[in-house]
Amino acid sequence: MTALRVVLDIFLVLTSLFLILTILMHKGRGGGMSDMFGGGLSSSFASSGLAERNLNRITIGVAIAWTVTIMLIGIMTRYAS
């Protein structure tokens, strides 16, 4: 059971970092974090509506994986005793 816990913890860290990156890559809407950190970079990615939609889908998928991972870790912690 500890090997599964280690795998879930590593997956949680990776999905957390990837979720942060995908959120920061989104097109800025009136200033904020995306404009503060590389606003010029995000404007080149956001020039296409298709790219923004794909980024939305990726972000939602990563957020779902992150949520499921947290739920699995919580279930394992509850029934580990």
UniProtKB/TrEMBL annotation:
GO biological process, any: protein secretion
Intracellular or extracellular location(s): Cell membrane; Membrane
Entry's Gene Ontology cellular component terms: plasma membrane
Transmembrane domains' residue ranges: 6-26, 58-80
Keywords: Cell membrane, Membrane, Protein transport, Translocation, Transmembrane, Transmembrane helix, Transport
Domain of life: Bacteria
Function: Involved in protein export. Participates in an early event of protein translocation.
Signal peptide: none
Single GO MF annotation: protein-transporting ATPase activity
Protein's UniProt name: Protein-export membrane protein SecG
Topology of this chain in the membrane: Multi-pass membrane protein
Main location: membrane
Family: Belongs to the SecG family.
InterPro entries: SecG
Any coiled-coil regions, as ranges: none
